[in-house]
Amino acid sequence: xxxxxxxxxxxxxxxxxxxxxxxxxxxxxxxxxxxxxxxxxxxxxxxxxxxxxxxxxxxxxxxxxxxxxxxxxxxxxxxxxxxxxxxxxxxxxxxxxxxxxxxxxxxxxxxxxxxxxxxxxxxxxxxxxxxxxxxxxxxxxxxxxxxxxxxxxxxxxxxxxxxxxxxxxxxxxxxxxxxxxxxxxxxxxxxxxxxxxxxxxxxxxxxxxxxxxxxxxxxxxxxxxxxxxxxxxxxxxxxxxxxxxxxxxxxxxxxxxxxxxxxxxxxxxxxxxxxxxxxxxxxxxxxxxxxxxxxxxxxxxxxxxxxxxxxxxxxxxxxxxxxxxxxxxxxxxxxxxxxxxxxxxxxxxxxxxxxxxxxxxxxxxxxxxxxxxxxxxxxx
Length: 380
Hints:
Order of helices and strands: HEHEHEEHEHHHHHHHHH
Helix content: 55-70%
Distance between the termini: 37 Å
Radius of gyration: 30 Å
Largest sheet: 5 strands, mixed
Structural class: alpha/beta
Number of helices: 13
């Protein structure tokens, strides 16, 4: 007689292979591809130097070219704008004077934003030149001055000169920031791996020892990542201790969250951590562009998850002396504390089949009910 369970399992496997698995893969592709396809400035903070007519014209020109793309901050002079860039108040600034335009940018903040500001500056200069040419033509029509040959004399407007200054340049060994942005996914996966190895072994280890091992593993892994990123590739050139600490704290926030979820809900916590950190946290982090270039909802979610906060913190420690990193540190500490508290206080759910907590009790186990045939034999 054919076992009906065999047919049921076969149908379940077929549904999983033809429906569930393609759906999961499609969602993963969408999670990475959709934010990348919607990259555009959204309230990107930039500075404008010049409170006169030239500065006002610059604001109007940028607003026409990219409506809602920029959040303008006015500064009295170029030095103030440079300080704001170094303090991570703005990504760059436009210094507008009659006949010239200086684009202050920071490739260390985002190579994509720096390219965007450079393009916008040249477009702004071209628009200003076109407006000046139209004004000169209109003036010539109103005032006719003849030369010796009877031709009208009009003075051609001077072309606006554009100059680009990189206030905070990125490392020469990583001019496009590829190493910096590419390291986030391996770090995230490594953090989950550390947590899974710790949570799925030594189930009866005291909670405080599990915390110590988790912190030590994250610190060592962060140090190894720093040695590769800077010692071999030269992508993190400044503030060695702070940069190593940023890497380790990012790893700890990811690992502690994963270990806490596994402790509370078992193996399902590993899958939930992978979804949260890899398929949401990484593509929503803005590490390959900038958070302000992503859709608003994506930006908000990404910066509240450890991968996004960690990438922003690492950029701040490696290139900006730790300026404007308080919010990122707070996010990472919050995830770390919650995860470690779950590891210490949570009930450790058996993680693997066959572990002491999941083993079925047999005849010889204390408190087990004897099998019926054994009870009848004893009564004889």
